Amino acid sequence: MTPYSLRLRLLVTGAISVVIALAIAAAGISFLFSAHVERRALAELSVQLDQVLSGVERDSEGQIYLSNRPADPRFNRPLGGLYWQILVEGRLLRSRSLWDHEIPLPVDDLPDGGEHIHMLEGPDGQSLLTVERSVILPRRLGETPMRAAVAVDRAELQAALRDFASDLLPYLLILAAVLILAMAAQIAIGLRPLGRVEARVGDIRSGRSRRLGEDFPTEVIPLATAVDALLAEREAEISRAGMRAADLAHGFKTPLQALLGEAGRLRANGQESHAAAIEETVEAMRGHVDRELMRARASLHRKAARCNVADVAEAVLRVLRRSAAGNQKHWEVDIAPELAVGAEAGELTEMLGAIAENAARHSASRVAIVARPLGQQVEIRIEDDGPGIPPERLSEMTRRGARADESAAGSGFGLAIASELAETLGGGLELRPGNPGLSVRLTLPVAPPET
Amino acid sequence: MAPVKNACRLLILVLILAGPGFAESDHDLARAAASRHEILPLATVIEDISDRYSATLLEVELEREHGLYVYEFELITPEGRILEILVDAATGEILEEEED
Q1: CATH class of A6-160
Q2: What ipTM, to 2 d.p.?
Q3: How many CB pairs under 8 A join A and B?
């Protein structure tokens, strides 16, 4: 699916509606202005027509003529844009502006004496807005019927409308820009809570928070609630699965122990080879069980996990010093008291316990545990003064089931599980030849800042 | 001197009466001549003239000189120069051009 922006969608549709609305407004305003201009022009023509009608006289030869002409100079300039025309007693009197043209007045079937409005053709192809009226002259002038018309070139009205439109346009553009900017601001403010949702989701992913919460706008709360419900469901499911795996692994431990007992009895009865075979199988199964337990714990691991290295090391040593392998050894510990790693205490105990126990078993007299920060990682080094492991076998030691000393007790899973767990947590386990003995280097990420 | 003065007065009187009288009737003259196709319509001639001089029309008069209809145009150019141009009304040919 192509990514698209809600913001862009709103902005584009909003901008289009603003432009459409303003275009409709512009058309409406122009129409009103045009109607207004035409009304003004008709009112003016009506006044001019009255003046033409009042100026009619008879000269000494008895001919009708216009004694008092309208004063507008446009009546006098050829094709001047403003025209009058009189038809009386078969004679045609015209303004000078008409020049060689005659206004083609239509045959008026309704000489009701009122003013009639026509659109007629004028000189030079002009379109004329014409006001025309049929009257009866006074008795003094012979009570003869007369038809008079006054007309204006519509190009003048259209020019006024064009000027108005071009004056209006920049204001409409500014208005459109302001409206669109206001809308962009409205969208930015309106959609800001969605950014908060994104930040919260980021918090959940990084482990700083577990739920979205409910401090959102009303419209977002249903979504946040649904996401939170989903998160809770998933969390419960994972925890159930982890617990089932742990239960299963625990369930195996006692039967395996019982099997080992049976193998011991077989050995006592002199069936050495059968006992060894059973013990080997049991050790392999125990390895799987330990591994599954570790995995179950790792799946429940929280991103925000942290524990103090010195405290965990102290707890591990307390146990080891009481064990057969550890009580005779000299333990050297050098760990800064505030040093913390991104792991649960249980996880670190598991890893450190496996490595330290291994070191205690193989050391001659001394085991050193040193931890120090190394950039974004913490390095924990466990060194013993035992026989060590030949360099060519070092790498296979972290594989499952490998053991340096086949006769010694232990599953051979300890280092492999510790290595796997360290990798799951974003660190690693590395074996190196020590001086003398074996040097195990466990790296783990530095603990996230406390919130 | 009195007869001369009287003659002058008479002349002025004639001019006053005749002047407007002639001016009033030149459009009727134009219509009559145009309807007989003796002259070109003013709109046609104006188009030619204003194209040629790229000037605006101030005033037009139609006169009859030696049996020839003559349009007398007064134009103003965009630079503000006022031109007077005589045009043969029958052909649209420019007869004379002078600056005021």
Answers
A1: alpha beta
A2: 0.71
A3: 44
